[in-house]
Amino acid sequence: MLEDIQVWLEAQQLVGKKAGWPCFRGYMPAYQKDVVPEQVVVLTERAAGPAPLRSGSHPKPRGLQVRIRTAAWDQDGGLDHIRAIYKALCGIRRNTIGSTNIRWVEAHHASPIPLGADKSGRFEFSWNFTIAASAR
Fold first, then answer.
1. Cystine design at 9: which of 15, 48, 87, 104 (Cβ 3.0–4.6 Å)?
2. Using an 8 Å Cβ cutoff, are 131 and 61 in contact?
3. Rounded Cα–Cα distance for residues 128 and 131 (Å)
4. What pLDDT, in 10s, does the model give residues 32-87?
5. Nearest to 42 by CA among 106, 115, 96
6. Spatial distance between the Cα atoms of 20 and 115, rounded to a whole number of angstroms
7. Displacement of CA 1 from its chain's centroid (Å)
8. CA–CA separation, 54 vs 72, rounded Å?
9. Residue 90: helix, strand or coil by DSSP?
10. Residue 34: which residues within 8 A CB-CB, separation 6 or more?
């Protein structure tokens, strides 16, 4: 699922080289000048949380965490970017993305969770989602 979500976000120009936000799956790489850029997006599969009350049959909910690290002292740019990812993900309804059938995506909370900044002023934010998805 993570690879399919990453490819879809690249098509929306929210992650990847064209977007200026490299995407990693499963871990937040440490910043290394000329190797790993300051601003990155990380996708991690996690526990889905409580299943929403819905009628009918639905795929088992899966969890997704989107975490970003901003360029130094760019808190507003980071917030704008993770909100754009939120809007894109929550707009997915009954769509096949790669090998994943997605019925719906819901955020666990109404805004991103601020995780603070490091000593160089790179802010981190996180947003958790529940996704009703199954393999094609």
1. 15
2. yes
3. 10
4. 888 889 999 999 998 876 655 555 566 778 899 999 999 999 999 999 999 999 99
5. 115
6. 21
7. 12
8. 42
9. helix
10. none
pTM: 0.90
Nearby residues of 70 by Cβ (< 8 Å), 6 or more positions away:
38, 39, 77, 78, 81, 122, 123, 124, 125
pLDDT tens-place string over residues 98-127:
888 998 999 999 999 999 999 899 999 999
The three-state secondary structure class of 101 is strand
Rounded distance between C-alpha atoms, residue 121 and residue 131, angstroms: 32
Write out the DSSP string of 20-33.
Answer: TB-EEESS-PPPBT
Show the tokens assigned to 47. Answer: 């526990």
> Up-side HSE of residue 8: CA atoms within 13 Å toward CB?
19
Contacting residues for 57 by C-beta, under 8 A, at least 6 apart: none
